[in-house]
Each structure stands twice: as C-alpha cells, then as structure tokens.
Design brief:
By secondary structure, the chain is mainly alpha-helical. The protein has one domain: Lysozyme. Helix content is 64%, strand content 5%. It has a 3-stranded antiparallel β-sheet with strand order 1-2-3. The longest helix is centred in the middle third of the chain and has 18 residues.
Length: 175
C-alpha cells in the first residue's frame, strides 16, 4: 500500500475536481475509441493543460483547435475513415468533448498503424501522419503521463473495474 501525505492527497483531489467534466469527457472519448485513458488524458494535458478557452491557434499553416489541438484536415480524415455521421467543423472542434473524441480516434488510428507502440503513435499524433525519429514531444509526454497518473487517481480505479477498454498503456508498453 502506498501512503501519500494529506497535502498531496488534497492537491490531487483539487486537481481532479477542478477538471472533472473535462476528465470525464476525455475518459469517455478514450473508452469509445478503445485507447488507453491515460494516453488521451496526457495528450490533452500536453496540448493545452486542459484549458478550454483560447487554445485555438495557427500551428504551421493551418489552425489547431481545442484542448487536443486537432487540425481540421485530421478531423475530416477521421470522419472519412470512421464514417462519422456528424462531421467536424471548427465550431464543433472547440467543444472539448468533441475535440477529445477526435484526438482519441486519431490516436487509435496511429496505435493500429504502429502495432500498439504508444511512443510512435504519440510521435505521429504530434507530427501528423508523417513519422520519423522520436521528437522531444515523446519525452515531454512521459512527464505528462506521470502527471496524469498522480493527479487523476480515479483512472487507475476505473481501469481495473472496466473491461470495455482492453487496450491499456501497460499493455502497449509490454510490446
């Protein structure tokens, strides 16, 4: 059994309470796309620190939208690939639940593409569909996963009791 200080526990509870709706939406998106919850949570944290306002900006030549910094062309690709009925629009991508859904689907695409290697999947997520050597983003991402596991302890509890999402980060790391 791991013991944590009451101060640490209080900070964890405050973090999870502050971002409760966002965390629950991201968990829903991860479960729907059948990707590890902590993977999508860490990507969203890395892209926006869960900020929902004012995070859309031009990245490269085109805008990146929302908490997961999803590009319109990526969302359209996911619409076509997964035959979504409701299509992506800039306004829809500003909604954090919709944004997390597209991010989770895009991570699923890359996890499938790279045989569940989450580091390659995250690298490809960050670069677009091009892949090459691992970027600094993957190193930063390791820190994001630790941050999420520390501050969102409910995902570990939920993962053990929920068999709907068999794809876990631990399973992808074992490969």
């Amino acid at each position: 059994m791991t013991l944590i200080s009451s101060t640490s526990y209080a900070k964890t509870q405050t973090f999870e309470k502050k971002y409760y709706k966002i965390i629950q939406s991201i968990i829903w998106a991860a479960d729907t796309a059948e990707v590890p919850r902590e993977l999508v949570l860490a990507v969203c944290w890395g892209e926006s620190s869960f900020r929902t306002k004012g995070v859309t900006h031009v990245d490269g030549e085109t805008p990146s939208y929302g908490i997961c910094q999803v590009k319109m062309e990526t969302a359209r690709f996911m619409d076509k690939l997964y035959k979504h009925k409701a299509k992506a629009t800039p306004k829809r991508l500003e909604d954090f639940k919709v944004n997390a859904f597209y991010a989770a689907k895009y991570l699923k695409y890359h996890l499938d593409r790279y045989d569940d290697d989450w580091k390659l999947a995250v690298d490809a997520y960050n670069k677009g569909t091009a892949i090459g050597h691992k970027t600094k983003y993957v190193k930063k991402f390791d820190k994001n996963i630790k941050h999420i596991k520390k501050n969102v302890p409910s995902i570990a509890d939920d993962d053990e009791s929920d068999d709907t999402n068999n794809r876990t980060l631990a399973a992808t790391e074992a490969k």
